[in-house]
Model the fold of this input.
Amino acid sequence: MSEPNEPTGSNGTAGQADRAAESAQSTGGAGRHVRVVLVDDHRMFRTGVQAEIGQTEQTGVEVVGEAADVDQAVTVITATRPEVVLLDVHLPGGGGVEVLRRCAPLMGDTERPVRFLALSVSDAAEDVIGVIRGGARGYVTKTITGTDLVDSVFRVQEGDAVFSPRLAGFVLDAFASTDAPPLDEDLDRLTQREREVLRLIARGYAYKEIAKQLFISVKTVESHVSAVLRKLQLSNRHELTRWATARRLV
Done:
């Protein structure tokens, strides 16, 4: 699946209408219907996705619930039983992998399966492989257009596996190996969000840049860095960068 640059309309409302119409044409939204739950800890992002794909008459996508953390997600998914869940990888309460673990019986329902499509800012191999092993049917990044996202939702509803092009290679490489990758006990101590901050620090990003990219405050970034240093028993960001580079996390 391609990830073209997001199209722009002459104004916000007209642009959304144009994109919705394109979505309907590309997916046959007028003749199909899918019930979706949005799981993401950023309210503004959920609002944007709802506005972009949730015009049911045009796209065929009906957003039946939203959640901002793991507990909310499990509650809403269990109550609404959607066909597809758009799932962020990094969530308070254990991350997307924990949602998948707790919703495993719903995924395994042969009559009304709930299928998951990861939608994340992260393009890290361990995040992709983790949620796919957890049972997600695909993984796309947040650079995806509304048209392509609608198409991806319908494909997942139909049982297809959907990936952004570069990410598919991670999955193929991981499952082509006959041996499971060794567990890293140090890395396992970190939460999904801490791993995200770790990678960005190791790549040389400043705290303000990390805060902007992850939609969190600089103070929250500082707290995550402190937690990472404490858990890994490191003293500063230079040691952290060497640690991440040695494990090929950068």
